[in-house]
Specification:
Length: about 500
């Protein structure tokens, strides 16, 4: 009995199997840690990659959707997939645009819209396989919206919206359309005495703000050559009031000319002749007291900026350059040669040289009217009848025909309506004092308008201080920047957003 007790006691004291159990438990914990560190870490890393890829893809698709198919027919999905692939390692990436992008299709795009993209990736698991899971799908999605640019690095020269659209209805014109804008200090013009210059250092100010003397020629020149140093945001809601910068500065227009020609900029590389211009609402600009002074009623103290547009500089002309103002036409003119002495003969009618009889010289009546009868130039038409009298007003006899011989036989002169030449056929009656009578007409010619025509597409009067800007519309373009709520002038911005968070996506873009 005692031996049995000793055996049982010895059995309870044995520890050979405990180590195996502890090792097994430790291995489970170790594999759990490996799964947590390696596999879960890999999943988190891959998700971070997919988030970046989805964001890049959404923005790439939005950039494509922001541009009309006429300007860029690229497939937004192809652009999105390329951007996603550039940000995610591996070849197993799948997904694409979902939920039918709002405002973007193969044949139609709208000025405001959004696109949502979704991507997934089967991430390989290394240690979780012992628990029955060899891969885990990682999925992300992103939304990007596009719309008219709400802020950008602009130059300090304004375009007025009604003039802007009246002369060149951007964005509803074909690519390559030349748009011309006239800057002077006339009461009917955009900027009156401030010539359309903006003080970008006083951007988005209250209508009661006292505009200072900053923004002069020197700082304007730097901004014209290199753009403003940071993005200028539009106020929400607009308009954005910006102080004008008074005074005509020829050197600033030369700065713009230098920029167009790729010289004079203070940064490298030069920004080039494609420029971002603020667009003004003429009906809302104000004077120093904050009163609205529409174009033609006074000099604005603050412009009312409502958007941006992108144009390419093509030419800059002074206001006395015929290329800018054109040339005036000629009004129609009627007159007559009533009893004007013929004088010496000046020509002969070669078409009658083989006819029977002899002609004793003649006169080409259009030149005769130009030289002696007050016509502004050689008339376009000689109006019959053409008659000739002696110096004392005795009628002479007109030949009614000269082929094969003059008729009547005793006639004095013949007028050939085909050649407009009056020929003399009677040497006895020929006299330099003989007087001719006929009427004439000079057809009017329309104005030849220049690059910056006047009202009704007419030639402008010369103005040596004025400037004519000729710029080319390049079609819809996008710039890195915010999306605004103002009107569409063809320059777009894109932004990542999330409809789950109020205010994240721009106004006017809704799911």
């Amino acid at each position: 009995m005692q031996g049995r007790r000793q055996g049982l006691f010895r059995l309870h004291r044995e520890e050979e199997g405990v180590t195996a159990i502890i090792v097994a438990l430790c291995l489970i914990a170790l594999f759990g840690m490996l799964v947590l560190v390696v596999d879960v870490g890999g999943l988190l890393y891959k998700r971070r990659e997919l988030v970046s890829g989805s964001d890049a893809a959404a923005l790439a698709a939005a950039k494509t959707c922001a541009v009309r198919t006429d300007d860029d027919p690229t497939d937004p999905l192809a652009q999105a997939n390329t951007a996603a692939g550039n940000n995610v390692n591996g070849t197993a990436l799948s997904g694409g645009i979902i939920d039918n992008p709002w405002g973007c299709s193969a044949s139609h795009r709208v000025p405001r819209g959004y696109v949502t993209v979704r991507y997934s990736y089967p991430q390989q698991l290394f240690f979780a396989g012992i628990f029955g899971a060899s891969t885990r799908n990682v999925a992300t999605e992103a939304t990007a919206a596009w719309g008219p640019l709400g802020g950008g690095n602009a130059i300090p020269i304004v375009l007025e919206s009604s003039q802007f659209q009246g002369r060149c209805d951007v964005p509803n014109v074909a690519n390559g359309t030349e748009c011309a804008f006239w800057y002077d200090n006339g009461n009917s013009q955009i900027g009156d005495a401030n010539w359309g210059f903006l003080n970008l250092d006083q951007w988005n100010v209250a209508t009661s703000t006292n505009c200072n003397s900053g923004g002069g020629s020197s700082s304007r020149g730097g901004y014209i050559l290199n753009n403003f140093g940071s993005a200028l945001p539009l106020a929400e809601p607009g308009p954005t009031y910006v102080c004008s910068s008074t005074g005509h500065a020829t050197d600033n227009w030369q700065d713009l000319n230098d920029r167009m020609n790729g010289v004079g900029c203070r940064t490298a590389p030069c920004p080039g002749p494609v420029i971002l211009m603020p667009v003004n609402d003429c009906s809302k600009q104000v004077d120093k007291s904050g009163n609205v002074v529409p174009c033609g009623t006074g000099t604005p103290d603050k412009f009312a900026i409502i958007g941006f547009t992108t144009l390419q500089l093509s030419a800059i002309y002074r206001g006395d350059d015929p290329a800018a103002i054109g040339s005036p036409g000629v009004a129609p003119q009627n007159g007559n040669c009533g009893g004007t002495a013929l004088g010496a003969t000046t020509t002969s009618d070669s078409t009658l040289s083989t006819s029977t009889g002899t002609q004793y010289g003649g006169w080409y009546l259009p030149d005769f009217a130009d030289q002696f009868c007050g016509a502004s130039r050689a008339p376009d038409a000689i109006v019959p009848p053409v008659t000739v009298t002696t110096n004392n007003n005795k009628p002479l006899v007109a030949c009614t025909a000269v082929v094969p011989s003059p008729t009547p036989a005793s006639c004095d002169y013949f007028y050939n309506s085909s050649t407009e030449i009056l020929s003399w056929w009677n040497l006895t009656s020929k006299d330099v004092r003989n007087k001719v009578n006929f009427s004439w007409t000079v057809s009017g010619t329309p104005d030849s308008p220049g690059a910056c025509p006047g009202p009704g597409n007419t030639a402008r009067p010369k103005d040596p201080n004025a400037i004519c800007l000729v710029m080319t519309w390049l079609g819809y373009t996008d710039q890195n920047g915010t999306v605004g709520t103002g009107p569409d002038f063809g320059t777009q911005g894109e932004v990542l957003c999330d409809f789950n968070y109020q205010g994240s996506c721009p106004d006017g873009v809704k799911p």
